[in-house]
Design brief:
It is built from 19 helices and two strands. It is mainly alpha-helical. A two-stranded antiparallel ribbon has the order 1-2. The protein is elongated.
C-alpha cells in the first residue's frame, strides 16, 4: 500500500483543491526535484525506515529459511503490483497487499520490510528512466515502505511467523497495526511538507486502508493454498491483471475528466480575456473580485467544489455585460429605470452564455445568475432570499460590492475603504449574508487582503495541457 500521498504536491493550500486538481498537480510536479521541507521530510522518513528495517533484519530471527528464487519471484510480483496505481486525492493506492501477506509468511519475516522497499524502488524505475519522476525522489520508495514494518513486528512479537489459521486474531492485529502506522507516518509527512491536517489526510487514508483490508483475506487464502508449493502463488497473478485493467480504465476516465476540466478552464480564461478586452474596468474588477472571493471562501472553509465554483463565478459574474450596450455600461450619470432594467439582464445573459458551454460552466452560470440577489430577497432577477441563494453567489455579491465601492466608476469616484466597510456593515443582514459580510470585514480590517496566487485559473500563463495517458 502506498501511504496515500505524493510529496510532489508542495502547495500548502491543497485542502482547497479538488481530487482532479490534486492529481494534475501531482503529475506535473513529480518530475521536479525535492526541495525545502519536502526534502527534509522525505529524508527523515526514508532514513528512519531504513534504520528500523536494517535493525529488524540484523537483530530479529526469522522462522522461515531464505529462498533466493522465491524471494526474487515475490519481489517481482511486488514490482508488478506497485505499478498498478489507483490515484486517490493527493496520492494513490496500489494492490501490493496481495504480495505483502505471502512475503510475511513465506520469507524470513524480519527481512520483508527491506524487500518491500526494493520492490517499491523497482516499481518506480520505469518512471525514473522515462523522466516522469525526478531521480532525487528515489528516497520516497523507502519513505513509502513504513507500512510493512508494523505487521512484521506484530508477527515476530507474537511468534506467528509460521502460518496457522488459529492465529487469525494476530493477523487482524497485524493489519490494524499496519494501517495505524501508515496513518501516523503519512499524517506527519503531509503535515510537515504540505501543511495538511490529519483530518484531511484521513479522507484519503480511509479509502486506501479499506482497499488493503479487502485484499488481505484474498492474499491470506492464496498463501495458505501455497504452503506445499510456494510458487502456486503465481495463480494470484490473474487477480493482479484484473486490477491492472480496472486501474487502467480508471486512469483513462481521470484523464478524460482532466481534459474536460482544462477545456472549461480554457473557455473561462478566454471569456475573462474577452470581458477585459470589451471593457477594461470590468475585466480588472472581475480579477480583483476573484482574489477577494477566494480569500473569503478559504476563511469560511468552503470545500473544494464550492471553492472552485466561487472562483469561476467571481471571474465570470459580469460576463453578461458583453450583451449590454456600451452607452449604458459607461454612462457617466445614474441610469434611468429602463436602462437599469436592461443592465439587470446581464446576470440572465451571463447564465445563458455559460449554459451554452454546458457541464461545469452550467453550474457556474446558476451562480452568476444569482450574484445580484440580496439576503432579504429584494435582489434580482429571481428575488431569492437567505440561504436559498447559493453560498458562492453570496460571497461573490459581497466582494463585488466592496470592490465596486472602492474603485472609480464612470459615474463617481472611489469611496474610501473605511466608508466602504461601513456600507458593508450597515447592509449586513439586508443586502449581504451576515456571515460572509463578517468574514470580509475581518479580512479587510486586519489588512489580510491579498492577491490569491494559487488561483487555478491563473496559476500558469497558458492553458494547462491535458495530462498524458499512461498505462
Amino acid at each position: 500500500m502506498d501511504p496515500g500521498s505524493d510529496p510532489a504536491l508542495s502547495d500548502r493550500r491543497l485542502e482547497g483543491l479538488e481530487g482532479e486538481e490534486l492529481i494534475e498537480r501531482g503529475r506535473d510536479l513529480a518530475a521536479q526535484p525535492l526541495a525545502g521541507r519536502e526534502l527534509v521530510g522525505e529524508a527523515v522518513a526514508a532514513f528512519g525506515f531504513l534504520a528500523c528495517a536494517v535493525a529488524m533484519a540484523v537483530f530479529l530471527d526469522g522462522e522461515q529459511s531464505f529462498s533466493v528464487p522465491l524471494a526474487c519471484t515475490l519481489v517481482a510480483a511486488h514490482v508488478v503490483a506497485a505499478r498498478i496505481k489507483f490515484e486517490v486525492g493527493a496520492g494513490f493506492t496500489v494492490p501490493t497487499q496481495l504480495v505483502l501477506v505471502p512475503m510475511l509468511f513465506l520469507l524470513p519475516t524480519p527481512l520483508v520490510p527491506l524487500l518491500v522497499a526494493l520492490g517499491n524502488l523497482l516499481g518506480d524505475l520505469p518512471d525514473y528512466l522515462l523522466g516522469k519522476r525526478h531521480p532525487q525522489r528515489v528516497i520516497i520508495a523507502c519513505a513509502d515502505s513504513w507500512y510493512s514494518l508494523a505487521p512484521a513486528l506484530v508477527l515476530v512479537a507474537f511468534g506467528a511467523q509460521s502460518p496457522r489459521i488459529e492465529d487469525w486474531p494476530i493477523y487482524v492485529a497485524a493489519l490494524v497495526a499496519q494501517s495505524s502506522l501508515d496513518f501516523v507516518v503519512t499524517s506527519f509527512r503531509e503535515w510537515w511538507e504540505l501543511g495538511r491536517t490529519p483530518l484531511i489526510v484521513m479522507r484519503d487514508w480511509a479509502w486506501v486502508s479499506a482497499v488493503d483490508a479487502l485484499l488481505a483475506p484474498i492474499a491470506l487464502l492464496a498463501m495458505f493454498t501455497s504452503l506445499d508449493d510456494a510458487f502456486v502463488l503465481l495463480l494470484v497473478l490473474p487477480v493482479v491483471g484484473l486490477l491492472y485493467i480496472f486501474a487502467h480504465e480508471r486512469q483513462r476516465g481521470l484523464n478524460s475528466a482532466l481534459q474536460l476540466r482544462n477545456a472549461y478552464l480554457g473557455t473561462t480564461i478566454l471569456l475573462g480575456d474577452l470581458i477585459e478586452d470589451d471593457d477594461e474596468y470590468t475585466g480588472l474588477h472581475s480579477k480583483t473580485v476573484v482574489s477577494l472571493s477566494l480569500q473569503v471562501a478559504d476563511d469560511m472553509g468552503l470545500p473544494g467544489p464550492e471553492r472552485r465554483r466561487t472562483e469561476f463565478a467571481a471571474l465570470l459574474h459580469d460576463v453578461g455585460k458583453i450583451a449590454v450596450s456600451k452607452e449604458i455600461i459607461n454612462k457617466p450619470g445614474p441610469l434611468s429605470s429602463s436602462e437599469r432594467e436592461v443592465m439587470q439582464t446581464h446576470t440572465i445573459e451571463g447564465e445563458r452564455m455559460l449554459q451554452r458551454v454546458g457541464g461545469f460552466l452550467d453550474e457556474v452560470g446558476r451562480i452568476v445568475r444569482a450574484s445580484h440577489e440580496r439576503w432579504d430577497g429584494s435582489g434580482y432577477p429571481d428575488g431569492l432570499q437567505g440561504e436559498d441563494i447559493p453560498i458562492e453567489a453570496r460571497i461573490v455579491c459581497c466582494c463585488d460590492a466592496f470592490n465596486a465601492m472602492t474603485t472609480t466608476r464612470s459615474y463617481r469616484t472611489a469611496l474610501s475603504t473605511d466608508v466602504a466597510l461601513e456600507e458593508i456593515r450597515r447592509n449586513s443582514g439586508t443586502q449581504f449574508d451576515p456571515q460572509v459580510a463578517a468574514v470580509l470585514l475581518r479580512i479587510v480590517e486586519e489588512g489580510a487582503f491579498r492577491d490569491v496566487r494559487n488561483s487555478t485559473l491563473r496559476a500558469e500563463p497558458d492553458v494547462p495541457r491535458p495530462a498524458p495517458t499512461s498505462a
